[in-house]
Amino acid sequence: MTRENDQCVAAAAGVVVEACEESVKEVREFVGGWFGAHHYSSDLAYLARTVVTELVTNALRHACDPGDPITVRVMLSDAGPVIEVEDGSDAQPVVQPLTLDETSGRGLAMVELMTLAWGVRARGGGGKVVFAVLDAG
């Protein structure tokens, strides 16, 4: 167990994938398996799979070149389960305004609505970690 941002963190697990469309399915299954192993409801596991899909897709589209590594971590914290997506880009994710005529660009707005909190922190050697905290209560 470690302390991260003054939160008690435990039961961390992670996977590193290549930046490609096929990796989205892999991280979705990884996150779903973690939530199942920790006996969370199927509804929360579905929500977690949706959140990680949006975060990894955002990294693929805006932060990575094909083949770049993307690290996905899931852990328990005092606030609730946390999903992290780490990439090598310093580009910050931006929530786009919601409009009725757009067919894409809603991912982070969805993440904002589906989670207790989300945010970004810089990595020391470059890159960033985008995280989302889910409500397990």
TrEMBL record:
InterPro entries: Anti-sigma-factor_SerPK, HATPase_C_sf, HATPase_dom. Gene3D superfamilies: Histidine kinase-like ATPase, C-terminal domain. It comes from the Bacteria. Residues 19-130 form the Histidine kinase/HSP90-like ATPase domain. The keyword Secreted does not apply. The keyword Kinase applies. GO terms for molecular function: ATP binding; protein serine/threonine kinase activity. Keywords: ATP-binding, Kinase, Nucleotide-binding, Serine/threonine-protein kinase, Transferase. PANTHER family: ANTI-SIGMA-F FACTOR RSBW (PTHR35526:SF3), ANTI-SIGMA-F FACTOR RSBW-RELATED (PTHR35526). This is ATP-binding protein. It comes from Actinomadura logoneensis.
